[in-house]
Amino acid sequence: MSAKSEIRVFAPATVANVACGYDVLGFAIDAPGDEIVVRHGEKPGLHITKITGDDGKLPKNPAQNTAGVAALDLLKHLGMTDRGIEMEIHKKMPFGSGLGSSAASAVAGAFAVNKLIGEPLTKNQLLPFAMAGEASADGAWHADNVGPCLLGGIVFIRSNSELDVAQLPAPKNLWAAVVHPDIEILTKVAREILPKEIPLENATQQIGNLGGLLCGLIQEDYGLISRSIHDVIAEPRRQKLIPDFYKAKRAALAAGALGFSISGAGPSVFALCEGEQSAKKVADAISGIFAAIPLNSQAYISRINTKGVHVIS
Amino acid sequence: MSAKSEIRVFAPATVANVACGYDVLGFAIDAPGDEIVVRHGEKPGLHITKITGDDGKLPKNPAQNTAGVAALDLLKHLGMTDRGIEMEIHKKMPFGSGLGSSAASAVAGAFAVNKLIGEPLTKNQLLPFAMAGEASADGAWHADNVGPCLLGGIVFIRSNSELDVAQLPAPKNLWAAVVHPDIEILTKVAREILPKEIPLENATQQIGNLGGLLCGLIQEDYGLISRSIHDVIAEPRRQKLIPDFYKAKRAALAAGALGFSISGAGPSVFALCEGEQSAKKVADAISGIFAAIPLNSQAYISRINTKGVHVIS
């Protein structure tokens, strides 16, 4: 068999919502992330042969597995469901962490299989298949994790239903400090905590901040970015699911963060920072608040990851 | 007296909201607009000596007049309320047109007086004084007309209360077709027709479209601009105040408009178009729908006006 008979890919964690961009904005970070290995197999069809790092929680039936659904959806589209493919899934980030764990698996599944069979589709064309995988886990149809995980960088989603996405430039010195406290929040619970209706005034504030954040990112205006990182819709409701959220927020801002909010549906939190040193200091400040509870946490420091999912071997 | 003893300024009409940017986005056009003349006077204090084009509707008492309030607020800030200044106001656009008529008067008043007394403040610094004039007419505090009228171009308002505004580049070939049908809508009525609460889903759609529009404007992506010009909040409620609104919209889109919606609180409508020829065709299509009602209307074709208020003599 050729060197291409086995492919290992890495799909990065992502921070969705980004404060004012509920369901429409996300960015990728360098670590953590999931790895998926695919190879040609004798037996027709897609088979998940091995899963690690999931504490036995994930089903090996591809039709019930996030990465499997994404890959199957792609193979079905290409009329190649009989092709013999073996898949190994190595979960390297926690479930329900707010870091786009299911999106990473879905993206990795679709991307790896596409590579293995000779790359018939572009990354952009893989978006709907990765979305199908993510939706099978999450029940919702939003691209704010899948988009940046697949494409890399900062991704804005004009329309989730139309999958109309735009990539934004990442200011060179923009760093993220992401801290994951060791508790689990189900996306479903975090969604149900949100109101069905919101005051028009809040919508206008959120729209103002989202627009300000986009202008700030594009114009590399750190002051404007900082003034714009406010979420008046989800954060006030979801913060109660995260112990000492406001203490952590105050500590992050006091340590120099441009802004701080919840990553995705939580419990991970993130801060945007100007420079690596600032991000380190901010991550330490946040971790310190959780440690005092006491609550274990993992901190990640990263530039915006502009690569997205990629082959590692 | 020196040549600078009398100054005439022109303040342009503006399109606020721009579909998905309710209260946070506006742009200036070349015409119509208001003119204000100021000169040094013998009698201490600000005096409005002449008003034309208002059908006798505007008060000459500066404290009750939009342009007067803006000028007085500025003079008060500078400790110069005793300075003798005469002001003439020439209204050249209709009241309640949705073209930022009161904003134009307020901007012209503050800008003209600032020029006359030697320009102690920059354009940006005049924003709160022009806002005070506009608020005296309108009762609300939003900068989506005053901002672009003063600064020119496309202006995004991150926060109305903080007056945090950003200027966006205007794609070179972006034209506006603005049509004012001869009916009057009071801003107050158009505001009261809006709900106090909106579905979260609509807020997310609006945020997606607003972000898409900003990305499209900055990246000169006419396709993205076109896909983003949708208002799911104000337009569905306010359209009933404008006769045959949806007929006009369909005609504009059929004639090639990138998008179409209500200018400010209406009754003026606007379309964004790629190129002058397209804008002319679209304006004719819209005017044709109003003419068939029958309803008189005035059409204006303009590039985005990047100058804003300026001295004309």
UniProtKB/TrEMBL annotation, chains A, B:
Residues covered by the GHMP kinase N-terminal domain: 69-153
Q: Which UniProt keywords apply?
A: Amino-acid biosynthesis, ATP-binding, Cytoplasm, Kinase, Nucleotide-binding, Threonine biosynthesis, Transferase
Q: Which GO terms describe its molecular function?
A: ATP binding; homoserine kinase activity
EC numbers for this chain = 2.7.1.39
An example Pfam family from this entry, by short name, is GHMP_kinases_N
> What's any GO biological process attached to this entry?
threonine biosynthetic process
- Where would I find the GHMP kinase C-terminal domain in this sequence? 217-287
The residues that the entry says bind ATP are: P94, F95, G96, S97, G98, L99, G100, S101, S102, A103, A104
For this protein, the record's InterPro entries field holds: GHMP_kinase_C_dom, GHMP_kinase_C_sf, GHMP_kinase_N_dom, GHMP_knse_ATP-bd_CS, Homoserine_kinase, Ribosomal_Su5_D2-typ_SF, Ribsml_uS5_D2-typ_fold_subgr
What catalytic reaction does the record list? L-homoserine + ATP = O-phospho-L-homoserine + ADP + H(+)
Q: In which pathway does it act?
A: Amino-acid biosynthesis; L-threonine biosynthesis; L-threonine from L-aspartate: step 4/5
Record function comment: Catalyzes the ATP-dependent phosphorylation of L-homoserine to L-homoserine phosphate.
What family does this chain come from, according to its entry?
Answer: Belongs to the GHMP kinase family. Homoserine kinase subfamily.
Protein name listed in UniProt: Homoserine kinase
What is the organism of origin for this protein? Luteolibacter pohnpeiensis
